[in-house]
Amino acid sequence: MSRRVRGISFVAATACAAMLLTSCAGGGSGSSNGNASAQTDKVSITWDMWGGDEKSEKWVKDTAEIARKQNPDIEIKTQTASWGDYFTKLTANASSGNLACVTSMNGQRLNTFYQTLSPLSEEDLRTAGINPADFTQGALDILSYDGKLYGIPYDVAAMLVYYNKDMFAETGTPEPRAQWNFDDFLAAAKSTTTDAHKGFGVGMGEFQWMALPIAKSGVQPVTKQNKLDLTNPDFLEAAQWYAKLVTEEKVADPVPSASELGWGEEQYQAGNVAMAVDGTWNAKGYFTNEAGFKAGAQRLPQGKNGSYALVLGSGFGIAANCQGAEREAALKVLGSLLSKDAQDLLASSGRSYPARTESQPLYFEALPEEIRGEVKTAFEAVFTGLTGQNSASTWQQVNEYFTPNLVSVYTGAMNISDMLASAQSQFGN
Predict the structure, then answer these.
(1) How confident is the model at residue 18 (pLDDT cuts 50, 70, 90)?
(2) pTM attached to this predicted model
(3) Rounded to 10 degrees, what is the CA torsion of 58, 63, 69, 70?
(4) Within 171-290, where are the H helices?
(5) How is residue 134 annotated by DSSP?
(6) Which of 38, 252, 276, 361 could form a disulfide with 268 if both were Cys (CB 3.0 to 4.6 A apart)?
């Protein structure tokens, strides 16, 4: 998910970006997305990945080195861009049919780019040396669209309710348990709301705000047939409940402006609210927060039909423009990027929770000892019975529409049912 930088939304490519990217698929050396190197007889394959900080760049470098050792007959190049720039550049490269042979993809954005990737067959997985049974149950749903597999995830994620243990203790509020429900959630939000702080921080990001309505209703705002379904009565009712946390229950403050894209999460991390919803990818940061409070985390509350939460994450696919010998080489590189050695490296770095189950214990070992047990318990609870995300082709436009209008919803200037109906009318497919 894996959304590593809060508040960044997909931006359409500009002419300037396209000019900068005429040789994007070739990496820093200007090589093509997958051709025989002019200097050697090796096939040259480029892996395109988001980065932007020293830790991420090191992970890319070290992971690529694992792939090189496993594939001495393939020249492997890497190229990175920041999270926001990556998808802008990907749009420019997709329009010119010039994607890197191994292209990294976020599950929430697959609906926009799936046609630029090559569906993976069982034979492709054998060539890559990938056994789906080695990965977390439901993980392959992350990069599947309309019944076809377009990539293999390197990490898995889910949404959690993070809570401030100090505020719960201060107000005498029982901490959330794994089987809690929405009555329990609302009671906790009310109990931890005082003159000094609110009990909950509402979200602006797609799953930061939609996770609770989805869990409460047991319904996704997109059908299994990838059709937008924002006005589904059950989802609509749950969304109205969510908006009322601000407008009627007064357990959350409205968001000041559309620029506050990480509002609820940032309020939580600063120690200003008792609870917020965010992904597992931010667990380490919350449990080691600079505000100094003791953090906790729990799976989403159960709705009337039981637990319902989505599996999220990112992975690697093969570009549709990668053909012949280059495609076979790219499949081998993809397999190496998802090998046990590579997944062990990912887990040990603490970057994210690996999709390969045998590597997952190393993620917890990389955490500070004082938080290790509690994070492990929360993860064991949340990564059970997850459901794959349904996604419409207009999903990105829908979320861009929501951003400014959610501010009006939280202030009471707009009814959330009107926002959802308007989005359904404009972007329904």
Answers:
(1) very low
(2) 0.86
(3) 180
(4) 182-191, 206-217, 233-247, 263-269, 283-287
(5) G
(6) 276
